[in-house]
Amino acid sequence: MLPLFIEDIKNGKPQKYYRTNEFADVTNSPVPDWDLINLNKYAYAIEGCEARTGL
Q: What pLDDT is recorded for position 11?
């Protein structure tokens, strides 16, 4: 998929979406450096609902 994307960029015609049936091998991905992100600037949600879980 990446070679197709790079070729499209070189030709100045990137597609809006790229789809594949393959999965990326995340074992080759680097671990994020969380020190670079100020997590106080982001909102997040915890999965679930208090009404359903009784929390």
A: 97
DSSP code at position 22: S
List the one residue out of 43, 3, 41 whose CA is nearest residue 22.
3
CA distance 50 to 35: 31
Please state, as a whole number, how many other Cβ atoms lie within 10 Å of the Cβ of residue 18: 11
What's the pLDDT at 7?
96
Residue 3 lies in a domain: yes
Residue type, 17: Y
Whether 8 maps to a domain, the answer reads yes
Per-run averaged pLDDT (10 residues), the chain, 55 residues:
91 93 86 88 71 53
* Domain range for 20: 1-29
